[in-house]
Amino acid sequence: MEQKTLWFDNIAVDIKEVAGILASYSELSGEDVEENNFISIDTYLPNDLFERILAFLPIASIFRAGAVCKKWNSIVHSRRFSKNLSSILSRKPWYFMFTSGSPNSYKPIRNDNGYDLIGYAYEPMVQKWYRFELPCHGTSICFIASSCGFVCFMDNDTRSQLYVCNPIPKISEKFEIPRYLIFSDYNALAVSVDRSSQSYTIAMVMSKRATHDFGQWILSIHIYCSKAKLWVSPVTETLMGCRGGDDCVICDGVLYFLIYIITELDLTGKPDGLLTYNLSSQSFCCVLINRLIPVPCPLTCGRLMNLKSKLVLVGGIGEQDQPSIIKGIGIWVLKGRDWEEFALMPSMYFQGLGNFDKVFASSGFDDLIYIQSYEAPSLLMFDMKMKKWKWSKKCPVSKRLPLQCFTGFCFEPRLELLPLGMATGQVFCGDPGPRCCP
Q1: Would you say 94 and 123 are in contact if contact means Cβ atoms under 8 Å apart?
Q2: How far apart are CA 92 and CA 132, in angstroms?
Q3: Residue 41 pLDDT class (50, 70, 90 cuts)
Q4: How far apart (Å, rounded) are the C-alpha atoms in residues 63 and 51?
Q5: How high is the pLDDT of residue 118?
Q6: Which stretch, 178-192, 282-296, 352-366, 421-435, has highest mean pLDDT?
Q7: 162-190 in b/e burial notation, b at 16+ Cβ within 10 A?
Q8: How far apart are CA 162 and CA 262, in angstroms?
Q9: Which residue has the higher pLDDT, 7 or 29?
């Protein structure tokens, strides 16, 4: 039987031409079964029990199961199997690493067959890298955020469109951003997904320098609800000598984002504190700066994460007199209005990340945090539950150009979650099935 998809250790392969993820695979004939002395496990197990077993497999193994025969393929695409998948509360997050000329954007490369979206996804359960692509349809993207199985990102070319997608089945929803939200100096994007309804909330924190006074910044918060399909802008404030950044997160219905102090000697700024906004209040009268929560120490590249409804901060620990020089990387958990130190990266791992300046990528979900340098494809993991550091398997991508950057983000791999617009016909699909390379 000719098979278009192969899964071998340490060999890069593609999953292509997949209709309905893996609907094109044919069933093994009776002769094949007899010749190979093949005994199917589903012969002896009730269907419901067999489907439950399949649901607990890693995502890559579910893809393989769908390729066994027509019966298994129909099972993994059935509604009942989707319900079994939804009963699994969470999966270990995959980390999507990509290379770009800029650490803040992801741009596909055009080739003879269309757009080649260069990137690799790491699955920690089986410790494998897969060649992977995002359904961004040929546009450069930026301000990437994820929640549960959804990934949200902005069109970097025009800043006029947002995408919400499930990157595993390559199903995405696109909608326009209001024109008054397009132009700003700094943007931060966060998304929160309701598993039961598969609806989502998007929050954008935007900072724009005041035209009449360069020391003032206009900070605004804008919220989109997928159920109502409506934008609201509950907060607009003028800040003196500080601005919002490019990172925010939603945790238990509260929006968190970092504030950066701006000086004449440092126009880019450094993280100074954390601001919060309760999304459920939708208050239009709010003096945010009065509720500033200071950062635990001089920080560079602070990243906020929602790990099991706990707000976690990962950042580079700067020298007291030279904050731009990192002497280590720390992890803190917010308890009330105070930061509690959770872990410090051991020096052997810190040095193993390679030579990097004050910027690095970090992302987390569930109990797992990923950290990588922008200058190399090395990927370090920290298990919050076990308090254990560990390197991932070596990524297949390599550095070829001096100014080449590496960055990434993590997301929970889910097959059953679909954007809300799926019910209204406003969702479109990319090339179904990921291109993978264990």
Answers
A1: yes
A2: 17
A3: low
A4: 14
A5: 65
A6: 178-192
A7: bbbbbbbbbbbbbbebeeebeebebbbbb
A8: 29
A9: 29
CA-based diameter of the chain, in Å? 81
| First-to-last C-alpha distance (Å) of the chain | 22
10: left (phi over 0), alpha (psi -120 to 50) or beta: left
Q: Which of 115, 186, 188, 193 is nearest to 151 (CA)?
A: 193
Instruction: Please give the backbone phi and psi of residue 105, each rounded to the nearest 5 degrees, phi first.
Output: -145, 160
The pLDDT of residue 306: 96
Instruction: Please report, as a single letter, which amino acid is at residue 141.
Output: I
3-state secondary structure the chain: CCCCCCCCCCCCCCCCCCCCCCCCCCCCCHHHHHHCCCCCHHHCCCHHHHHHHHHCCCHHHHHHHHCCCHHHHHHHCCHHHHHHHHCCCCCCCEEEEEEECCCCEECCEEECCEEECCCEEEECCCCEEEECCCCCCCCCEEEEEEECCEEEEEECCCCCEEEEEECCCCEEEEEECCHHHCCCCEEEEEEEEECCCCEEEEEEEEEEECCCCCCEEEEEEEEEECCCCEEEEEEEEEEECEEEEEEEEEECCEEEEEEEECCCCCCCCEEEEEEEEECCCCCCCCCHHHHCEECCCCEEEEEEEEECCEEEEEEEEECCCCCCCEEEEEEEEEECCEEEEEEECCHHHHHHCCCCCCCEEEEEECCEEEEEECCCCCEEEEECCCCEEEECCCCCCCCCCCCCEEEEEEECCCCCCCCHHHHCCCEEECCCCCCCCC
Of how many residues is the chain composed?
Answer: 438
**What pLDDT is recorded for position 282?**
62
Per-residue confidence (pLDDT) for residue 299, from 0 to 100: 86
Average pLDDT over every residue of 299-322: 89
* Predicted TM-score (pTM) of this structure: 0.82
Q: How far apart are CA 144 and CA 371, in angstroms?
A: 16
Query: Percentage of the chain with pLDDT > 90?
Result: 27
Q: Give the tens place of pLDDT for each residue, 181-202.
A: 767 888 899 999 988 888 899 9
Measured distance CA(400)–CA(396) in Å, rounded: 12
Strand partners, 371: 362, 380
Other beta carbons within 10 Å of 343: 17
For the ranges 12-26, 109-123, 266-280, the lowest mean pLDDT is seen at 12-26
* CA 159, chain centre distance (Å): 19
Q: How confident is the model at residue 357 (pLDDT cuts 50, 70, 90)?
A: low
CA 433/CA 427 separation, integer angstroms: 16
Name the residue with tokens 């025969």: 69
